[in-house]
Amino acid sequence: MQPTHRAGTGLAARALRGSALTVGGFAMANALRLGSNLILARLLFPEAFGLMALVTVLLVGLAMFSDIGLTPAIQGSKRGDDPAFLGTAFTLQIARGVLVAAAAALLAWPMAQFYGEPLLLPLILASALNPFIMGFVSIRKETAQRHLMLGRVTVLELTAQVVGLIVSVGLAWATGSVWALIFGALAASLAQVLGSWTLLAGPSPRPRLERAAAGELIGFGKWIFLSTIAGFLALQSDKLVLGRYLSMGEMGIYNIAFFLASFPLLLGHAVNSRLMVPIYRETRPGTQDASDRRLRRIRLALTGFMLALTLPLVLGGAWLVDVLYDDRYAAAGSLLVLLALAQGVQMIGLTYDQGALAAGDSRGFFLVTAVRGGATVLALLLAVPALGAPGAALALALAALLAYPLQLRLARSHRVWHPAHDALTVLALLILGALALALHGLPLAGQTP
Fold first, then answer.
1. Is there a domain that residue 445 lies in?
2. More confident site: 92 or 149
3. Of 177-186, 369-378, 390-399, where does the model show the most confidence?
4. What average pLDDT does range 404-408 have in this prediction?
5. Mean pLDDT across 15-42
6. How far apart are CA 60 and CA 136, in angstroms?
7. Residues 6 or more apart from 265 whose CB is under 8 A from it?
8. Could you tell me the pLDDT band of residue 278, with boundaries at 50, 70 and 90?
9. Which of 36, 114, 236, 277 could form a disulfide with 75 if both were Cys (CB 3.0 to 4.6 A apart)?
């Protein structure tokens, strides 16, 4: 049974409400992340964040390598409210969690050997429980996102985060060990599973396997699967490459800088992934009618808000690190400025890929992501040996620019290109870059932590 919409059922009302909930939830979630990061940075040692960065990049990589796009498939499919379709999606979700957990366990020893860090072995084995647990999150969460009913989803995610924070901080205070981060993540996963079955309303399809539904989900997801592999290279390969050139302490400093710099773009991704496919599904891009004009305003508002959040990071990044962290993390200040600018470049065409997914063009989505992922790895391998951690920021920006022409082609093919948006974004980034250069000089050579 399809969820019913209450007051304000039109697309504009639901988009506005969904945006407000997503932005509000994101702000609260990242306030919690920042608070816990500041506390944990004082209770733990920088090497703990370096180790956790490598554990996280492995689990995120495996999750992305196994992603078949269940969320966009449910959001975009005509059968997105069919219990048989949802039950099949739930079955695939559980199977994916089991496979990711098994793969993480198998890779634990080789990864520990590759990085010369024996502690990675038990840390990864314990963390492998996370994807297994998350496989049992209720499919009600996907249904709620399909209909832009995001209130309880936001509450669920914030509640799980608070549980994880309490466990992490409590154990860090008691033990001073990196294991506090591992058990905090496991507690958050358990809270999200339990909350998804108790906090979210709606039908609860049980696991089943309908052949037609599985065919549609896997058919749509085959390109998403390849896209997420490429997406992993675009989003996470900096940690893999840096892990070979930096110590665990230096990795921890880079992770702090990346954590702070990523706030604006993470907000954009959160709004983009939750709202844009349903919005594209209910509008007629490129027609110049009221719905198309509304879509353009939404895109401009999202990018403008991200750039507004980027401005203080570029102007006061070094000061921010000095205020928030102790002297062990001082080198993160210049990295924060560079990474904030690099993330800004990725904002230019952020929403175009969702237009392709809404049209069922997962192949086009894959091609763009593959080019960006390949360009990221190549740029990292060239820049990091020469420049260290600042080279990673330069590589991320360069890769986004190299992928833009293909991204533009995809946007034009689905009639979602907005040239004024792109031009204004580039102009804003040039101004931000000029301000950064005037205030901070050129923080590249000699600034590696």
1. no
2. 92
3. 177-186
4. 87
5. 73
6. 18
7. 306, 343, 344, 346, 347, 350
8. low
9. 277
Query: pLDDT (tens digit, 9 = 90+) per residue, 291-343?
Result: 677 778 878 888 888 999 999 999 888 888 888 888 888 888 888 999 999 98
- Measured N-to-C along each axis, helices 248-261 and 11-43 cross at an angle, to the nearest 10 degrees, of 150
Q: Cα(391)–Cα(59) distance, rounded to whole angstroms?
A: 24
Q: What are the distances in angstroms from CA 116 to CA 50, 125, 360?
A: 13, 16, 44
With a CB cutoff of 8 Å and minimum separation 6, the contacts of 155 are 199
Asked if residue 448 is part of any domain, the answer here is no
Nearest to 366 by CA among 410, 330, 322: 410
CB-CB contact of 231 with 369 (8 Å): yes
As a whole number, mean pLDDT of residues 66-79 equals 71
Residue 368 is assigned to a structural domain of this protein: yes
Answer yes or no: is 3 within a domain. no
Query: How does residue 388 score in pLDDT terms, banded at 50, 70 and 90?
Result: confident
328 DSSP assignment: G
Pairwise CA distance, residues 342 & 380, whole Å = 13
Q: Positive or negative CA dihedral for 22, 23, 26, 32? A: negative
Q: What is the residue range of 55's domain?
A: 11-440
Q: What is the distance between the alpha carbons of residues 146 and 81, in angstroms, rounded to a whole number?
A: 9
b/e code 342-365 from CB counts within 10 Å (16+ = b): bbbbbbbbbbbbbbbbbbbbbebb
CA–CA gap between residue 395 and residue 411 (Å, rounded): 24
pLDDT above 70 covers what percent of the chain? 82
Residue pair 82/94 in contact (Cβ under 8 Å)? The answer is no
Q: What is the 8-class DSSP label of residue 206? A: P
Can you tell me the distance from the alpha carbon of 3 to that of 202, in angstroms, rounded to the nearest whole number? Answer: 7
φ and ψ of 173, to 5 deg? -65, -40
Mean per-residue pLDDT for 256-266?
87
Count CB atoms within 10 A of the CB of residue 449: 24
- How many angstroms separate the CA atoms of 225 and 64, rounded? 7
Q: State how many domains the chain has.
A: 1
The mean per-residue pLDDT over the stretch 222-231 comes to 68
By C-alpha distance, which of 26, 111, 118, 7 is closest to 61? 111
The amino acid that residue 405 corresponds to is: P
pLDDT, position 356: 72
Alpha-helix residue ranges (DSSP H) falling in 246-289: 248-261, 263-271, 277-281
Task: Write down the pLDDT at residue 444.
Answer: 44
Q: 133 with 93: CB under 8 angstroms?
A: no
| Residue 185: alpha-carbon gap to chain centroid | 16
Residue 442 is which amino acid? L
